[in-house]
Design goal:
Elements (H helix, E strand, L loop, with lengths): L10 H4 L20 H25 L16 H6 L1 H8 L1
């Protein structure tokens, strides 16, 4: 709503986190501040998000991606009888 009203502010640019400093993307901005302008800004934000996702997917290195700490879900009977199994189930 803020950018749809003409204010150029984006949390990802003002306080970047994770990989946002390494990604170049445009921040959409409206001029009128009406519902239609905010709608257009939102649609452009969706397009920008897709570009950011594609950029991140292209940076993933090729090869196997495996978790180091692989855990299996406990059986229902174990989960009902042991608190640790119940906790593990919900993690």
């Amino acid at each position: 709503m803020l950018r749809g009203s003409g204010a150029l502010w984006d949390l990802r640019k003002s306080s970047p986190y994770e990989v946002y400093p390494e990604i170049s993307f445009a921040v959409p901005q409206g001029t009128q501040g009406d519902c239609y302008d905010r709608y257009l800004v939102r649609v452009e934000e969706l397009r920008t998000s897709i570009e950011i996702i594609n950029h991140c997917l292209n940076r993933i290195t090729l090869g196997e991606i495996k978790a180091v700490n692989v855990k299996t879900a406990p059986s229902k009977s174990t989960m009902k009888n042991f608190m640790e199994s119940t906790i593990q189930h919900f993690k």
